[in-house]
Amino acid sequence: MAACQTKKEEINFPKTDLASVPLIPKPIKTIPTGSAFGLDAGTAIYTSTTDPEFEKIGDFLSSNIKSKTGLDIAVNTASEDKLERLIYINQSDSVDLESPESYQLYIKKDSILLNAKTAAGAFRGIQTLHQLIPEKSNDTLTDRPMWVIPSGKIIDAPKFAYRSSMLDVARHFFTVDEVKKYIDALAYYKFNTLHLHLSDDQGWRIEIKSWPKLTEVGGASEVGGGQGGFYTQEEYKDIVAYAADRHITIVPEIDMPGHTNSASLSYPFLHYAGAETPRVRTDMKVGYSSFDAKKDTVYSFLDDVIGEIASITPGPYFHIGGDESHVTKKNDYILFVEKVGKLVQKHNKRMIGWDEIAQADIDPNSVVQLWNSAENALKASENGSKIIISPAKKTYLDMKYDSISEYGLNWAGYIPVDVGYKWDPETYVEELAKDNILGIEAPLWSETISNGTELEYLAFPRLIGYAELGWSPSEHLDWDDYKNRLAAQVPYLESMQINYYPTKLVDWKKE
Ligand code: ACM
Fold it and tell me: Is the pTM of this model over 0.90?
């Protein structure tokens, strides 16, 4: 250490203010100390050795730094004579780090210490650090470029354990690369879940080896008449692994008993007599298809489907859909949800369903996703289920921003960027106990969008607001403060080539 101390120059940093960096989501506590850490070629990253996952976090940070600054920062290998400043990612069992994703950042002149109990916490922490690195270096402080990170302390943890978005890859198919790009943005804003809506009337999007026609027949269509598509199981595993590297869990959804035209078209025995006869559907209607809840063969089919998907899904959840089964008789619907719930349990997953499933007698371990009916959510919560808050009127990313929006629908109303932000998921359903809220989700249905550019137009910038609603304490939620921080996301969005909707409600910080 003596060698590196003698090398160290005294740098006269301009006064900094850690609290004024436009972080999203806003951390619980930020305590500025006015000085700075100079990130430059003399910086190295070290990681705890108690958990091998921490080295991966170090590598991730190093590649973030490389893409933002061009600097090559070594992980766990820098020799002492080259090392002037240190970023240490430390596994800590401190009692202050209560929730698994909590972290503490201590930024000083000669070191940054990131404490986290788990690799997931460390991953959230390096997103904060990534956001703290300025876009531009200061080239006058020393003889080489230095990125000035304000000093101080950040204490942070998420409000909700489940912070999610959903992509409907059924109405229109999105490629693996388009999904990965979305995952990158979710990771940057500290989401931890991506729900994939893998089947619907217009298309079936996941290979099931024991029932190949699902993709051969059911996968070959989409809204508007395009060619559709599907993920092979290898491609799905690739998405799952890519998400897992970013501490994001994939929740697969097979929507049933309604929204099943593409499955029944592939295998007509699944079809329920009261539903419309299956044919290729490229329109946007809902509520006309159903599985037959009374046939044993339907459940042996579903045992295979759920089993194959569960076996390649490391996360704890399986989403059974359950929405808008308008042609299924109520008794049949209830029977169906209860039987499918047992199949999900058999494959060691925890069931999630849209709020209609609360009409059935579901296991209290099941999770109910409020999209439409607060009454259903309350009923489920009283029976012990946890609730995901994703009301269409507030969180549906496919609702148009306003009357001149290019894409989107408006059956739940327009959702301008401020309306999407100015509400509190904890009090949205007044009678719902906070402890029974698992988290928040912003679904993106894809009837009107067919490629990544259109997807991004609807998702951004609203998705960024849902990140804050899911993570930051309610007392920090303030539109006027948020909109300034949102305006400052332009360099990130541009560097990622994300096509965001430049709403006039925000004074975008363009160069
Ligand atoms: C839904 O929007 N039908 C869940």
Answer: yes
